[in-house]
Design goal:
Blueprint (H helix, E strand, L loop, with lengths): L1 E10 L6 E11 L4 E5 L6 H8 L7 E6 L2 E2 L5 H11 E4 L11 H9 L8 H7 L15 H13 L5 E5 L7 H18 L2 E5 L11 E6 L2 E7 L12
Parallel strand pairs: 3-8, 3-9, 6-7, 7-8
Antiparallel strand pairs: 1-2, 1-4, 4-5, 9-10
Helix pairs in contact: 3-4, 3-5, 4-5, 5-6
């Protein structure tokens, strides 16, 4: 799905230049669940933004199904982000005055061939909470609404930036199970940023980043389930 070679992102110029990505190489495939590990400032979020078309590389190759994302104009990038990519962030970004169903419908109304909001909420285990407002939901439930909103467009790619960072362990497990289910049942490529090395066991592959480089790639011959992780 993604073919990446020599991908670099440098912010600023001259002595003020900051290298966020220093030339990374990898491929990503349909139905994979990939975890990105690394300390703050290692390049994880920059890499996720590149994959999602939220930022452009300074140099290098970034192909999506053979198409060069770096050459997409803004309308093409907008279509890519709208139709192909679902984003899940640590902040839920729900609209307080809308119910869970209505928050998801904001996305389904602008996408091609989306699933019904109720179907997306069922997939994340919120079938009985879809007509509740965000203030009536727990943090974990709000994050699952955000996941439902991201996957309702039936994206090929689900990009998750610290989706459990603000949650307790028990709630985080529930959220990760929702992502895992989407990955398995819809065949969606899921890429998850985390500081928690324990989550590595739930992935097909694990990339560890440091100073803008991939310093280790681990392949799990057999993925563990979220419930089996040694929290």
């Amino acid at each position: 799905m993604f073919h990446v070679r020599g991908l670099a992102r440098i912010y600023g110029e001259g002595t003020a230049a900051v290298t966020a990505l220093a030339g990374v190489d990898f491929d990503l495939f349909r139905s994979e669940l990939v975890v990105l590990l690394g300390a703050s400032g290692s390049g994880k979020s920059t890499l996720l933004n590149q994959l999602g078309g939220l930022d452009s590389p300074t140099h290098g190759t970034l192909l999506y199904h053979g198409a060069d994302l770096a050459r997409f104009d803004e309308p093409a990038l907008t279509r890519f982000r709208r139709d192909a990519v679902g984003f899940v962030f640590q902040a839920y970004n729900l609209i307080p005055s809308l119910t869970a169903r209505e928050n998801v419908a904001l996305i389904t109304e602008i996408c091609r061939a989306p699933m019904a909001p109720a179907e997306a909420l069922q997939l994340v285990g919120l079938g009985d909470r879809m007509d509740h407002f965000p203030a009536q939901l727990s943090g974990g439930e709000q994050q699952r609404v955000a996941i439902a909103r991201a996957i309702a467009k039936r994206p090929e790619v689900l990009l998750c930036d610290e989706p459990t960072g603000a949650l307790d362990v028990r709630t985080g497990i529930t959220v990760l199970e929702a992502i895992e289910r989407i990955n398995r049942e819809l065949g969606t490529l899921a890429v998850i940023i985390t500081h928690n090395a324990i989550l590595a066991d739930m992935a097909d592959r694990v990339f560890t980043l440091s100073d803008g480089r991939i310093v280790n790639e681990r392949i799990n011959a057999r993925r563990g389930s979220v419930r089996d992780l040694a929290w």
